[in-house]
Model the fold of this input.
Amino acid sequence: MTNTKKLTAAEANRAYFIALANSRGSVSMLSALALPTILILFISNVGPLNPSYLGGYEIFRSISIANQALIGACSAVYLILTVLKRLTYRFQVLTSWVMATMAAIMIYGLCLLTLPMAAYVRDKQLFVTLFGTFALVAVLLLASATAVHAVLLRRRLKVGHSEKRTAGNYLAVSASNRSKVFWIIFGVIAVVPNVVTQGQYVPNLIGICGLILFGCLTTSLPVEFAYLAYLKSKDRDYWERPPRPVAKDVRRRLARKIILWVLGVSVALAAFWVLAKYVL
Done:
């Protein structure tokens, strides 16, 4: 019979954040986070929120300007990362803070993509009113979810992160039970009302479900990334070592996967936008 030593809360937390620093929160993942963020912001900027589609409404002009500024900033970060990759490991505290900011921008972009679907109606004036209402709800949802994740992080720091959560960093999976429950709820919400209403509210329901999903679940990323940046500023044990050069065939496979993922998401979002605008 083997005796397994139970980790203290401090040891469990240390193991968790070291695992996070070398997996999901790795500075090497920043470029992989920046590129989809740029794509998401670009899609939202050329889609129905663009002022050319809904001229005369200041809110959409302000969103378009903000998106263009964010696209420029994220593109600059992505360019620096590709040209001066070694600096990301030399200045890891700054890089981790940038990563937390990039995660927050990505969540903003994802929520912004869901808002036109949630507020979708053919009447332009009513769409603007609903969009403003859902935008306010989204702000409150994001603020509440961020506060909840911060409280949950504080609680986990007191009791110590579980081994399952620590291993989850490397497996890059979330809790399967919560995932199954979410998809069951999503299926019920998306299918039942649309059978009754003959598909009239498909865009609205998908937009609302997407807003809840992105607003509630993904807000844990910037919270944990920000705390990891704080830990790196206090202790170099959380820093990563620069990786060894990767073989060309491995780089090609990784690049192919990223390109296919980005293209797949782009095609899916474009197809849904065309369906919502011209078919429904």
